[in-house]
Amino acid sequence: MKKKKQNKIYKLFKIFLFKLIYGKIKKIISTRKTKNIIVKKVFFEDSISYNLFNILKGRLYSNTIHDTAFILNRSLIKEASFQYRHKKNEQIINGNIHENTVIKNGTPKFIKKIKGTVFSLLCGGAAKNSYWHWIFDVLPKVGILEKSIFKHKLDYYLLPSMSKNYQKQSFLSLGISPTKLLNGEKFKHIICDNLLASDHPVLFNNDPSMSMLNTPIWIIKWLRKKFLKTNFLNKKLPKKIFINREHDSSLEVRKIINNNEVKYFLTKLGFKSITLSNYDFKKQVEIFRNAKFVVGLHGGGFANMVFSKPGTKILEIQSTKSGDVISNLAKKCKLNYKRTIEKNTLPTLNYQNSHIIVNLSKLKKLILSYK
Question: Which domains, ranges and CATH numbers included, belong to the chain?
């Protein structure tokens, strides 16, 4: 209890100190009311468009969780900043701009001055450690930038994190030098000559949960164009794979209780059990491009379906509340999708995170039902 009180006092002192150093955020401004912010529209198919912001002498502060503030002098920029919040029903929304953490707490980190132009790919805490959000929230921002007039002026990319191997590897695959990558977990407070930012690639109508169900077609096409640069024909790679999450997931949430039985059962049917985290980004792309049948528990590894050939068989194992994000993506990628839904064994775990026991008889019937 004493330590908790000491931490609270330290936090309040830190906030007070940094407000003295950098000042309070005095007001909220719109991009339309200053000449120091250039806004360009970037257009894609299906009438989808995004704003791309160029903030002259822009400042950025992020808590690397759900809040990122784009700042000009001591003013918070409304359109570029975001502050994701959970509603009572666990739905995530972009909260009111007045809820951004800098309004109350200021910018309690020493600022790092960067010469040149920085493009922010920050998009909420999920992108730091979620493969799915990295593929569909972070990488497509490069696609937005590519269609802009700013693309030849870029010096650095500010990433949500660089703690996972696939994060740096995916940018290497795009031909972007590691010397141009800034780790957002270390560069939480920066100022630069030009600060670039874009709208979120898949967030529309302020409803991330629903937006995830409808990945824009341009993103699928862009990912394939960028990362499927060869045919990836490799006879040594397995044609049937089981995405084994037993070493990837926390033991506290979302696991198959009888995982060993499922693995043994699928192995007898010719499937190879693979743990995706054991492979680098390029190899994951190659594995899914070669696979003809993929089975796995609901999870981010299925993002790699975007690299699969049309007609690839996909069998998703779900809890009762896993949702349709994977099935919808499979349909857009023209894959042969089916699912098996199992009852939650731990109802106290919310939504997709409950443990399940797979009915092997039902699983076998589904596998044999594929044509």
Answer: 21-226 (no CATH), 229-369 (3.40.50)
